[in-house]
Design brief:
The protein has 459 residues and is α+β, with helices and mostly antiparallel strands. It has 17 helices and 14 strands.
């Protein structure tokens, strides 16, 4: 149980104090020889009566110090880099494996083990999609690309596909810039590869929710006409919020500032309650132009219409800062609401699909693949697989509660909205449930470095 054994940082002079007397006869030790291999310290001693012995700070695994394997595994599996760990160890003067030793262990043991575990999990995810197809349940996937660096000078683009039913990543494609004409062109390449791979598995995709880029639109229209293309509500609302915040900075449009969040929430509500009907979605979206002026019932094309909210009291109506129909702020909002491009996009948002969970995965990916660092292709693949294993294992965490059972929140104040927002705090990530199973395999099926590393990964 090398991974489970408690470990302590011990200074070398204190260790050598243990080699003053022979453990067999109690005689004075006259000769000691020290040797180190990375994190391993080995001491050979000899006493006055010619008794000899050997002591090691950790055991060997077929000639390799077990702690060297542990240090390398923990560095990679926590998303850290060797440089970070080495800098910390250098300041502490703590002995760890050399850089070449670390990368040898990574390529020989860690990367293959991560790949094997990822393939097993991906196989289970694909089987779930096959089961949905067999049960005649529609398969809905979301997709989004993530560049490895900010700006337009990225070397890699990671395109991920997520199952909307389980919020788990089912497949990803890593594209290098040399495989495309430019950094911007990497995402369409990854998108096509990912979709083709899923279809080659015999899975029929009913609805796909990528982004709204012109290149992705054309690919969906030309190459995948049988797949319904939905637009991501999250990105549309994000773009609308940016426009509202940008316009409300002007003096004539400052009346829009307190309404920004409500307008964005209204778009979310319209998409969530339209029942898949694009006409109803557009009609409900336009109603914001009546509500924001204090008009909650009106006649449209000879039919009476009204807001869906409950009747407002006189105090609530007096407290609201309604916009005047002749104000510059109202005309600015009217241009945004009735924009032809937005109206056209709304027709592909009636199923209320969004890639919010994919953005959550991208935040997890930052832990393992920082945009400020460059990784070689094999390391980039392994770290992306680690992020997927981490995300899929912790999908569906419940909101954390206090000792009295009340839900926990974090209060934030975004600068662009200038409004306090309560965000839910979720439970801490849990350990792998199959911990005991892998321990049985470890001690029942033979102790090998690869199996040991795999156990550390799963725990």
């Amino acid at each position: 149980m090398h991974w489970k054994t408690k470990k302590w940082i011990v200074n070398e002079p204190h260790v050598m104090e243990l080699f003053k007397r022979c453990q067999e006869c109690g005689s004075v030790i006259t000769k000691t020889t020290k040797a180190s291999v990375g994190s391993l310290l080995r001491v050979h001693w000899e006493c006055e009566k010619k008794h000899k012995g050997k002591w090691s700070s950790c055991s060997d695994v077929r000639g390799m110090p077990a702690n060297n394997l542990l240090v390398s595994a923990c560095t990679l599996f926590t998303g850290a880099t060797y440089t970070d760990v080495a800098d910390w160890a250098t300041l502490l003067n703590l002995q760890i494996p050399h850089k070449t030793t670390y990368f040898d262990i990574q390529s020989s043991y860690l990367v293959p083990v991560i790949d094997e575990e990822y393939k097993q999990q991906q196989k289970a995810a694909i089987n779930d999609l096959h089961l949905q197809t067999e049960l005649c349940n529609p398969v809905h996937l979301s997709g989004d690309g993530r560049s490895d660096s900010p700006g337009f000078s990225a070397k890699y683009n990671t395109y991920s596909l997520m199952d909307d039913t389980t919020d788990k990543i089912v497949h990803f494609e890593l594209v290098q810039v040399t495989e495309a004409s430019s950094s911007v062109a990497m995402e369409p390449v990854g998108f096509k590869r990912a979709v083709n791979t899923i279809q080659e598995q015999g899975i029929k995709i009913d609805v796909l929710t990528p982004d709204r880029s012109p290149s992705i639109r054309k690919i969906m229209r030309v190459e995948y006409p049988n797949i319904h293309h939905e637009f991501d509500v999250w990105h549309v609302v994000k773009g609308l919020s940016k426009k509202l915040c940008s316009n409300s900075r002007y003096k004539d449009n400052r009346e829009l500032q307190p309404w920004t969040r409500s307008i964005c929430n209204h778009l979310w509500y319209c998409c969530a309650t339209c029942g898949g009907d694009p006409d109803e979605l557009i009609e409900n979206w336009k109603s914001i132009l009546y509500h924001i002026t204090g008009v909650h019932s009106w006649i449209e094309e000879g039919n009476p219409k009204k807001c869906r909210h409950n009747d407002l009291s006189l105090e609530e109506q007096h407290r609201k800062k309604w916009l005047g129909k002749d104000s510059h702020a109202f005309r600015t909002l009217q241009n945004l609401v009735l924009d032809r491009g937005l109206q056209k996009d709304l027709r592909q948002m009636a199923l209320f699909k969004h890639t919010g969970q994919l953005e959550v995965f991208h935040s997890v990916l930052l832990k393992y693949c920082s945009k400020n660092l460059h990784f070689h292709y094999a390391s980039m693949v392994a770290r992306t697989q680690l992020a997927i294993l981490d995300h899929n294992e912790n999908v569906g965490r419940q909101q954390a509660t206090t000792t009295t059972g009340l839900p926990r929140y974090n209060i934030v104040f975004p600068k662009h909205t200038k409004e306090w927002v309560a965000k839910a705090i979720f439970e801490k990530k849990k350990l792998k449930k199959s911990k005991r199973l892998w321990l049985r395999k470890l001690y029942g099926g033979g102790w090998t470095p690869a199996l040991f590393t795999r156990t550390v990964l799963l725990i």
